[in-house]
Structure formats: C-alpha cells, structure tokens
Amino acid sequence: MHQKLKEKSAILANRNGPILLHDNARPHVLQITVQKLNALNYETLPHPSYFLDLSPTDFHFCKYLSHFLNEKTFRSQANVEDTVQEFINTRTLDFYQNGI
C-alpha cells in the first residue's frame, strides 16, 4: 500500500508516514493490524461510529456541496461536473483544513 501511495501521491508518502482514516471494522482493529501500523509509523484517525456511511471529512465536504448545489438544475453530465469543479475551485484552503 505504501508503495502505491508513493506512486500516486509522493507528497503524502514522504511524510513521517501516511495518515489513515480508520473505522472500527474488525480487520482494522485486530491487534496484529494495529501493531503493524504502529511499526510502520502510520498515523491513524479514528472514524466515529455515528457516521455509518461518511467519514468526518466526507461529511464536512458533502454538507457544503449540498448547500452549493441546492436549487440548481442540470441539463447534462458535463454541466454537473463543471458545477462540482466550480465548487471545489472556489473553496479556500481554510475550508479544506477545517474539514480535515
């Protein structure tokens, strides 16, 4: 996994270690898994159990995206993609930092 991360996003892999958003799924909380992540110096962020289908960062992003898209009408897939890209491009760095 670390090698794939280096290939796809070297900036993330060149930290002390990647940060993993970790839920409480059985494979993620097994002692052997936790020990391996600690040995690799991977930082893990806990995933609150009350967000069953969204990570905290997804919740932050999707909440504001939903407000941005409210009452907009789309006539094509390209129009949807352009509008979502507009939303992404108009967010400030603080928006993303606060969401993470």
The gist of it:
The protein is mostly helical and 100 residues long. Helix content is 59%, strand content 8%.
Provide the descriptors you would attach to this structure in a database record.
2 strands; mainly alpha; 100 residues; 8% strand
What does this entry look like structurally?
- Strands 1-2 form a two-stranded parallel ribbon.
- The model has no long low-confidence stretch (mean pLDDT 77).
- It is mostly helical and 100 residues long.
- It has helices spanning 2-8, 10-13, 26-29, 31-39, 56-69, 77-90, 93-99; strands spanning 19-22, 43-46.
- 59% of the residues lie in helices and 8% in strands.
CA-based shape: elongated
The fraction of residues in strands falls at: 5-15%
Helix-strand category: mainly alpha
Mean pLDDT: 77
Distance between the termini: 22 Å
Rg calculated over all Cα atoms: 17 Å
Low-confidence stretches: none
**Strands side by side in the biggest sheet:** 1-2
The major β-sheet equals:
2 strands, parallel
**Strand runs, count:** 2
Share in helix: 55-70%
Number of helices: 7
Describe the SSE topology:
Blueprint: H1 2-8, H2 10-13, E1 19-22, H3 26-29, H4 31-39, E2 43-46, H5 56-69, H6 77-90, H7 93-99
Parallel strand pairs: 1-2
